[in-house]
Amino acid sequence: MSTPARTCDDGQVASGAVDVLVVGAGFAGMYAVLQARRHGFSVLGLEAASGVGGVWYWNRYPGARCDVESIDYSYSFDEDLQRDWTWSERYATQPEILRYAEHVADRYDLRRDYRFDRRVTAAAFDGTDANWTVTTETGECHRARWLVFATGSLSAPNRPDVPGLDDFGGLLLQTSRWPHTEVDLTGRRVGVIGTGSSGVQLIPRVAEVAARLTVFQRTANYTVPVLNRQFAPHEWNEIQRAYPERRRRSWASLAGTPHVAYHKQYAEIDEAERLAAFEARWREGGVLFGKTFDGQAVDPEINEAARRFAERKVREIVRDPQTAEDLLPSGHPVGAKRICTDSGYLETFNRGNVELVNLRRDPMVRITERGVETARASHDLDVLVLATGFDAMTGALTRIDVRGPRGDVLAHTWAHGPLTHLGLGVPGFPNLFVLTGPGSPAGLSNLPLAAEQQVNWLMELLANCRQRGIRTVEARADAAQAWTRRVDEAARATLFPRADSWYLGANVSGKPRVFMPYIGGFKPYADRCDDDRDGGYAGWHVGDVTTADAEDLAGPRSEPPAPVRGGPRTAT
Ligand code: FAD
Ligand code: NAP
């Protein structure tokens, strides 16, 4: 068994035990703090950043904006909040979304329950008094009955294992840790590594000002113009009028948004109508192109038709044939990696000051003091930007030393992939809950609604426990195995496992290849959570942890749970 987490002396405990401790002040954490308070719990929030907003606090790179329309990508729980906030454009930029998060924090006075600049490094459960002790980097200790990790699925930056990264003599930036002061890239020689959603948003903005921009692309991605626009003031009346129905449809949907696929089935229509449907979606803009037809994420024929359509668009836009060829995604189905949304991305490669380096043909050898060395050339740079993504879904949690009462270490329990019941609980870790993480639909759904659904469910459980005098709740091992298997099976029924995506952990070397989010849909997931509740929380041990429970749950403690997923790519 591994060494137990450092425990806190009484003198180090910063405050008396609270009922609920929430880690994270993104959309999920803020809503958890608010609802815990509204349910009458004492609550403390801890956040590594200096303010609220989560993703929108950290990702301040030029061009950052949401890819779900802002009128959907916002809280739905309070109609007054919804009415009082006006989005200026269809897809708001990072500063506006951060202002929204700050507005929410002000409106509900959330900061009074938060401590900022507190990175949680460890958490240990004490079975004798059924409390978690949570330790921060600053050395503070806090105690709580219920521990809620709202640490985000895309919050742990992925630093690429490229040789020589620390040797670079210029300015090294990372999109997910962008400086809070303005970075002037005017007239500079800039390199960008990474062409996922972040890189695709950043690159056109850098190209406008840099003397020279070199884009290092390992994998070309599908990208669709976002077709953003400002809202005219008169549109707000109509948006407000339509909001209740829009939200109703979103709550009943598969992805937490009100949109539907083309009204006819692909097989029922001829080629001309299919092309017209793809074109209409393309002109609508954004990620919905990935869902033009029902079954596009499952049926290789429909997906291939979407791929051909997107390929034509690339060739139409990009003038140099070799560059166009290099920008064509190959080897993964449309939508199996998050579709990028852009404002002039492909057009950027028609500029004289922009060069695309296809790392598949010209591999990166090392970073040097002067820039990037590939097999064929040396690229001298003043600034190097890493748009290299995240250790997604599990990274924020496995970086914390989380220990259960019987010596379980979360990072070990998840060594072969995350094991959760409904994405909310982990066997071996009583009174610990995870929001918007693996096993939940959050990574594939409109996040604010996904967070609201989980928090509402969780607070009902905790209120129920308080009413019944229950001190501990722990996900059952059998329920977690069954749910984890279901998450895997749902993914295998689609084309998603065919892409080396962050959904699978494939973007981080050494990470187990396991499909982590629940792809079965937002509403079906919410229904499963409700079934669990209506069945008397059948997937949970509810009550104090006894020795018998421990035996029942734990099995042999020295072994991590057997992998129930992974293996060959067998998606249809
Ligand atoms: P986060 O916003 O990631 O918040 C987690 C918080 O926990 C962070 O503030 C972090 O600092 C804190 N934290 C983590 N570890 C610790 C620790 N050990 N101690 C203390 N604090 C800790 N999703 C959509 O649905 N639509 C979009 O348009 C969209 N756009 C996106 C754009 C970008 C650039 C990125 C990166 C993601 C985007 N996403 C989008 C996904 C995004 O993750 C969610 O929408 C949402 O912001 C996540 O909210 P959250 O509260 O779950 O997590
Ligand atoms: P990402 O999609 O994982 O993309 C990372 C990029 O870096 C990929 O192109 C990857 O190439 C490349 N890369 C990583 N390591 C590399 C290496 N060693 N050498 C060369 N290239 C390397 O990350 P992201 O762009 O930050 O986006 C992550 C997710 O955040 C998105 O999928 C989306 O859900 C969300 N997001 C949304 C928006 C938005 O539009 N609202 C904006 C940003 C982020 P490979 O593909 O070959 O690994």
Strand residues, percent = 15-25%
CATH topology term of the largest domain: FAD/NAD(P)-binding domain
Helical run tally? 16
Detail the poorly predicted runs: 1-6, 545-572
Indicate the CATH class of the largest domain.
Alpha Beta
Small-molecule binders: flavin-adenine dinucleotide, NADP nicotinamide-adenine-dinucleotide phosphate
Radius of gyration: 24 Å
Mean pLDDT: 92
Percentage of residues assigned to helices: 25-40%
- The secondary-structure class comes to alpha/beta
N-end to C-end Cα span: 41 Å
Q: What would CATH call the homologous superfamily of the largest domain?
A: FAD/NAD(P)-binding domain
**How many domains?**
2
Shape assignment = globular
CATH A-level architecture of the largest domain: 3-Layer(bba) Sandwich
The count of DSSP E runs of length 2 or more, i.e. the number of strands, is: 20
Largest sheet: 8 strands, mixed
Using brief descriptors, characterize the structure shown.
572 residues; 2 domains; eight-stranded mixed β-sheet; globular; binds flavin-adenine dinucleotide; binds NADP nicotinamide-adenine-dinucleotide phosphate
Summarize the structure.
The chain has 572 residues and is α/β, with parallel strands linked by helices. It has 2 domains: 10-156 and 392-475 and 518-546, FAD/NAD(P)-binding domain, CATH 3.50.50.60; 189-386, no CATH class.
Write structural notes for this entry:
The chain is an alpha/beta fold. The chain folds into 2 domains: 10-156 and 392-475 and 518-546, FAD/NAD(P)-binding domain, CATH 3.50.50.60; 189-386, no CATH class. Helix content is 31%, strand content 15%. The protein has 16 helices and 20 strands. The strands form 5 sheets. Strands 1, 2, 3, 4, 5, 6, 17 and 18 form an 8-stranded mixed β-sheet that branches. A 5-stranded parallel β-sheet has the order 7-16-8-9-12, covered by helices on one side. The protein has a 3-stranded antiparallel β-sheet with strand order 13-14-15, with no helix packed on it. A hairpin with a 3-residue loop joins β14 (371-374) and β15. Residues 1-6 and 545-572 have low confidence and may be disordered. Flavin-adenine dinucleotide binds at residues 23-29, 46-49, 54-55, 57, 59, 64, 66-68, 73, 119-120, 150-155, 198, 396, 400, 436, 446-447, 451. The site of NADP nicotinamide-adenine-dinucleotide phosphate has 25 residues, from α5.
